[in-house]
């Protein structure tokens, strides 16, 4: 198996099996059927955020969106606030997705137009959005969400959470098809691999990246809707820590932070690994501090593996050019 990306997928499958075995060793409750449904409850929110982060990274720059968790929190508060003002829930969710897109557009403007490095630009909006969420609510959640809305994240179809079927799986399929079989997907990879060459071939690189940051905001809005359905309340800290988890998932899944390398299928496997690890540690009563340490070690390992894959691909390109 000489393809580095295929090797990465093989590695991820092995890591997922290892995480499952570790969970079974840490807690006898891990192998129960109910644990699978509990584990899959976490997957859609983390998964869609990981996909959004993957898209931003793929286009290069280098690209990263550290505001994605704060965007999720702010959109959730906006939806709950609109509903409290009498706006129908479905319409409030649609407006929330638009707000997510606008928040993503702020990132896009900073990164693509003003040319602020994505790390600094999205870190600034992370603080701005987080501060705004706290200021608008005084740190208190907004309740009053209708019971029927809980079906999205709390309901089950064939024992699997509804939002797995209705949000996570469809989004993964759509993004996979877009990246693999469409011109937009080829442009994203081209921009990530060689920005100048992509520009000379007619790709509007800055417009492409601008759109992906906006799409990242919309996807964060989807995560907000699922979280709102799950908790039946909007919390100003709902997205706390999600930015680093989404980066971990994207990088572990094979997305190169400098662009041009990555697959949605890798992101899907990565979110399963991360959630399996989290649930295993929770069931074993491992403290939150050690859970964060484990995620941190996983991120370090992901970056090391990411660099190794990048070096092998660059070496292959050099050999092909000689």
Describe this structure in words.
By secondary structure, the chain is mainly α. The chain has a domain at 38-241 and 256-262. It has 13 helices and two strands. The chain has helices at residues 4-26, 33-58, 68-84, 89-113, 118-137, 151-154, 162-181, 183-193, 195-200, 205-231, 242-252, 264-283, 288-321; strands at 156-157, 160-161. Strand 1 and strand 2 form a beta hairpin. The longest helix has 34 residues, at 288-321. It is globular and about 60 Å long.
Question: Summed up, what is this model?
Answer:
It comes from Palleronia sediminis. This protein is mainly α and 322 residues long. It has a domain of 211 residues.
Spell out the key features of this protein:
13 helices, 322 residues, mainly alpha
Low-confidence stretches: none
What Rg do the Cα atoms give?
20 Å
Query: Could you describe the largest sheet, including whether it forms a barrel?
Result: 2 strands, antiparallel
Give the strand order, joined by hyphens, for the main sheet: 1-2
Number of helices: 13
* Terminal Cα span: 23 Å
Coarse morphology: globular
Mean pLDDT: 88
Percent helix: over 70%
| SS-based class | mainly alpha
Beta-strand percent range = under 5%
Helix and strand run: HHHHHHEEHHHHHHH
Overall strand count: 2
Oligomer: single chain
Protein name: ABC transporter permease
Pfam family, one: BPD_transp_2
Transmembrane segments: 39-59, 66-83, 89-114, 126-145, 157-179, 210-232, 244-261, 268-284, 290-309
Keywords: Cell membrane, Membrane, Transmembrane, Transmembrane helix
